[in-house]
Amino acid sequence: MNDQDIGNISSFVEVLSLTKVTLLLIGVVVLGIAVKFVAGIGASLHSRMPSRRLLIAQIVTVASFAVYIFGGTYLFYGVVQPPKALLLAISGTLAVALGLSLKDLIASVVAGVILLFDRPFQVGDRVTFDGSYGEITSIGLRAVRLVTLDDSVVTIPNSRFITDVVSSGNFGALDMMIEVNFHVDLENDIALARSLLRETAFTSPYVFLKKPLSIVLSEVNFAERPAMQIRVKCYVIDVRFEKALQSDILLRGNAALREAKISRPRRLADMH
């Protein structure tokens, strides 16, 4: 860094008077309060309109980004009011310094903006990423927060989503396809088993009947012997009830198969 650069930075420091620094700190606090206020409104609307909770969450995310970006820009130019000549003079030096020291942070912030507009997933989506599966609860400036089904919070830097593969189960919709698997012996009445499991799925309180429900049969090896795999594929009415639907179909489906005396595959060693 030469004497001219040092002089430019000194001039910039002089622009930041005690009053301006105080106003900047107050502005940052106000921005934080504004973001929390937006989140509070979103939480209130969630409870009043649960069927619109994903849309509300997405609007809250966009509003939070807008508060940070436009509010931060206003604070810098409205409060600091740096001279244009000074900005041009030190922009190169500051860009290099910030680029080296805040490289990862800047990459995550830029990736966050890309995620907001490219939308490979949205707040409320059930996604699988790097072995973690759960619901996206927030997309922030630096990171995405994912809550797994066992209620663990996974924080993932935004920049990782730009290059890695992510799978979204519902992609902004409230409903999502669920698959529940059953296995039965080949000597059973397969048509009866299929009918019983279809009825079980249709009568579940968590199934979304406006979407198609299908039963898929496949002959597989299970328990070291040939068996028929019966896959029940249906949509849950709300992704929050994903496990409730699976458990309901499994419990009542197994009970229906037992009552109809439809046997399940057992290892040959266990049969002797």
Short description:
By secondary structure, the protein is an alpha+beta fold. Helix content is 52%, strand content 20%. The mean pLDDT is 82.
Could you outline the blueprint of secondary structure elements for this entry?
Layout lengths: L2 H13 L2 H31 L4 H28 L3 H18 L1 H16 L7 E4 L2 E8 L3 E6 L4 E5 L2 H4 L3 E2 L7 E9 L5 H13 L11 E9 L2 E12 L5 H18 L13
Antiparallel strand pairs: 1-2, 1-5, 2-3, 3-4, 6-8, 7-8
Explain what this protein looks like in three dimensions.
It is a single chain. With 272 residues, the protein is of the alpha+beta class. The protein has three domains: 3-101, no CATH class; 126-168, SH3 type barrels (Roll); 176-271, Alpha-Beta Plaits (2-Layer Sandwich), CATH 3.30.70.100. Helix content is 52%, strand content 20%. The protein has helices at 3-15, 18-48, 53-80, 84-101, 103-118, 160-163, 190-202, 242-259, and strands spanning 126-129, 132-139, 143-148, 153-157, 167-168, 176-184, 214-222, 225-236. Strands 4-3-2-1-5 form a five-stranded antiparallel beta sheet, with helices on one face. A three-stranded antiparallel beta sheet has the order 6-8-7. Strand 1 and strand 2 form a beta hairpin. The longest helix has 31 residues, at 18-48. It starts with a helix and ends in a 13-residue tail after the last helix. The model has no long low-confidence stretch (mean pLDDT 82).
Number of helical stretches of at least 4 residues: 8
> What fraction strand?
15-25%
Summarize the biggest pleated sheet: 5 strands, antiparallel
Shape: elongated
First and last CA, distance: 84 Å
> What Rg is obtained from the alpha carbons, in whole angstroms?
28 Å
Unreliable parts: none
**Largest beta sheet: what is the strand line-up?**
4-3-2-1-5
Provide the helix percentage.
40-55%
Number of E-type strands: 8
Mean pLDDT: 82
- Which structural category fits the helices and strands? alpha+beta
The succession of helices and strands, N to C, reads HHHHHEEEEHEEHEEH
